[in-house]
Amino acid sequence: MVRAQPLARLLLLCLTHLSPPGACDVAGGAGSVNSLPAAGSARLAPSFDAATPKNVTALVGKSAYLSCRVRNLGNRTVSWIRHRDLHILTVGGYTYTSDQRFQASHSPHTDDWTLQIKWAQQRDAGVYECQVSTQPVRSFFVTLHVVDCDEIYQRMFSDAVPSARILGGPDLHVDMGSTINLTCLIQFSPEPPAYVFWYHEDEVSGRKQVISYDSARGGVSVVTEKGAATTSYLLVQDAAPADSGRYSCAPSNADLASVRVHVLNGERPAAMQTGSAGLSDSSRAIALLLVASLLHARLRSALLAS
Hints:
Elements (H helix, E strand, L loop, with lengths): L4 H12 L9 E2 L19 E2 L6 E5 L4 E8 L6 E5 L4 E5 L2 E2 L6 E4 L6 E6 L8 E7 L5 E10 L1 H8 L6 E4 L4 E5 L4 E8 L8 E6 L6 E3 L9 E6 L4 E7 L8 E7 L5 E8 L16 H25 L1
Parallel strand pairs: 3-11, 13-20
Antiparallel strand pairs: 1-3, 2-4, 4-9, 5-6, 5-10, 6-7, 8-9, 10-11, 12-14, 14-18, 15-16, 15-19, 17-18, 19-20
Helix pairs in contact: 1-2
């Protein structure tokens, strides 16, 4: 559930980075839709282009690009300073820090002076100053925000109600002697469930019990993978008619989800019957197509023979 446009923009940024390498690494940085229009200036004193983005958002582990566009620079020098510790990062095209993630770039005959931060980390967030060596100095400030996509997804769906569902329901049919394989998906939870219980209910007797992995029946196993979406797998080997019934997945933080399992002893349900009386519309269409193709082939052969 999307609550605010800023979160939607951040989610779009995360989705953009699922594209192949070479895509733009930041929002609002160099090459973004906020790229600055070329404009001349009649003033001789250096000045900053007011349209340059003052807020840049980068993803953890990606490159961040902080732009500074200076008009009429002349023989002055552009420096980048990190405000957190007042550390001078770059002067002109030279880097003055042992952190090799920082690099200054400037294309000849342009007004752009860009600070690149490779493999951005959340500790890199903060204010950066683009400074021109005039007297007194002139400065342009850029605020860098570094976000984690996992956190964005968490915030986007923080108001969603946790839910569970078993894939393939509401009815599953398996042959006797095969393996019952059920998958329960738990979504929209602020954190993974503390536990996931599986229940089996005999719909004839109405008896419902927690599925025990160490029961006398044996051949039962559960694998649960926790994450942004939690998946729990139930495997019941060598299915027997007694294994038919309703199976429920009950996570600690969501309502349970259920599915009916039918263990077949050689029979087939009506939906799986074969024969002319039980053909589906799609089966009839395929049969008619085969007949038409056969008739066409025979007609073609007759025409060629004549």
